[in-house]
Amino acid sequence: MEEIARRAGVGPATVYRRFPSKALLLRAIVDARLAALEPSIAAAAAAEDAWAGLVAGLEVVLEAQAANTSLVQVLAQSGELTALKSELHTRVIAPLCELMERAQQSGAIRRDLDPQELPLLIRMVASTIETSSWQRYLTLLTDALRTPQPTALPPR
After folding, report:
1. Are 58 and 142 in contact (CB under 8 A)?
2. Domain-located, residue 12
3. pTM
């Protein structure tokens, strides 16, 4: 908290008055980041072309993860990430799952995936963020989703 105060150019007491605990500070940061992300998610969800919307939404989510790796680590270490999962699902993942379902219905992507598997697919690509080439792996993933003659998937 002292480092945050120093970087903000305020005294520690000012930070503690506004954010009496680290959990409240983390929550404020998450709220700000989600508020910044939501217009892009809404635009993706409103896309007439569900496939283009899904790809745009995936890019936005992964860009946000890449820009916030330290925040995600702090949230995980503090136990706050688990508490946020339901909210993240509602505000970010659910609209993308709906896009995936629309894209499947239009025939744009393979139908043998459950849209509820999308968070796992996002985590697969997110695991490459530290290599700074996640865009490459997102391209591979999106190509795999669109393959015209997909190999049958083994059961879950």
Report:
1. yes
2. no
3. 0.86
Q: Does 101 map to a domain?
A: yes
Nearest of 93, 115, 97 to residue 37 by alpha carbon: 93
User: Is 99 in contact with 50 (CB distance < 8 Å)?
Assistant: yes
Whether residue 3 lies inside any domain: the answer is no
Closest CA to 112 of 80, 85, 146, 142: 146
Q: Tell me, yes or no, whether 8 lies in a domain.
A: no
Distances (CA, A) of 20 to 9, 17, 28, 82: 18, 6, 12, 21
Report residue 123's pLDDT band, with 50, 70 and 90 as the boundaries: very high
**In sequence order, what are the residues at sequence separation of 6 or more whose Cβ sits closer than 8 angstroms to the Cβ of residue 49?**
108
pLDDT tens-digit map of 9-20 = 988 888 888 888
Residue 39: count other Cβ atoms within 10 Å of its Cβ: 10
